Amino acid sequence: MGQCGITSSKTVLVFLNLIFWGAAGILCYVGAYVFITYDDYDHFFEDVYTLIPAVVIIAVGALLFIIGLIGCCATIRESRCGLATFVIILLVVFVTEVVVVVLGYVYRAKVENEVDRSIQKVYKTYNGTNPDAASRAIDYVQRQLHCCGIHNYSDWENTDWFKETKNQSVPLSCCRERASSCNGSLAHPADLYAEGCEALVVKKLQEIMMHVIWAALAFAAIQLLGMLCACIVLCRRSRDPAYELLITGGAYA
């Protein structure tokens, strides 16, 4: 009965190690996604420390490749030292992922205030006739999120660009996709996106943080199961001197 329990634990442990390799790829993908998306919205959220959870997630993903290799070798060879090392590394990674979750929630809470502070400045520096990085960022966000202005399209009336152009129009990026004849004129508000960009940018950035948080939580749960199975194998092996090694097919440990 005890031998059956150990074998089951080892089987689960080997399977979990394979999952770790898949998890490593997913975590690296999530981290890279955060970096790429942040690059699109960096003008609206200037706190670079927001990328710390993404950096940690990528580092954890790279480490999981190594953990999976150590875990498989230690489980197949039933190395007590290897399994102990495996458990310790998993514990360190688990604590790291808990830190990522905490940081994710901290920075998620800061998003709204940070965007509110930055977006005002970005819109004031918009220059549609000679686009700079900030102008391209605004046009990109308005097209991608289907929004116009900070709270609505009327916010453009308070910008220097609007006052200088004196044509009573907003950027073409405010035009709805279906409005093929739209020229940005405020005389045709039905052709413009009605929703402001601030709320949508905040929502988008918070969604990005939630991707990091859920990824860290999911794989932290898998790592807990991995630690549990490794501990079961270690404890049973230390209590049973007649424990058979899989690699030798019956030699005493």
Structure report:
There is one protein chain. The protein starts with a helix and ends in a 14-residue tail after the last helix. It has 253 residues and is mainly α. Helix 2 runs antiparallel to helix 3 and helix 2 packs parallel to helix 6. It has 6 helices and no strands. Keywords: Glycoprotein, Membrane, Transmembrane, Transmembrane helix. Belongs to the tetraspanin (TM4SF) family. It is found in: Membrane. Its main location: membrane. This is Tetraspanin.
Distance between the termini: 19 Å
Strand count: 0
Shape: elongated
Structural class: mainly alpha
Q: Return Rg in Å.
A: 27 Å
Count up the helices. 6
- Classify the beta-strand content into a percent band: under 5%
Low-pLDDT residue spans: 1-6, 241-253
Largest sheet report: none
What is the typical, i.e. mean, pLDDT? 78
Residue share in helix: 55-70%
From N to C, what is the helix and strand string? HHHHHH
Family: Belongs to the tetraspanin (TM4SF) family.
Membrane topology: Multi-pass membrane protein
Main location: membrane
InterPro entries: Tetraspanin/Peripherin, Tetraspanin_animals, Tetraspanin_CS, Tetraspanin_EC2_sf
Spell out the blueprint of helices and strands.
Layout: H1 2-41, H2 52-77, H3 80-124, H4 133-145, H5 160-165, H6 197-239
Helix pairs in contact: 1-2, 1-6, 2-3, 2-6, 3-6
List keywords for this structure.
single chain; mainly alpha; 6 helices; disordered C terminus; 68% helix; 253 residues
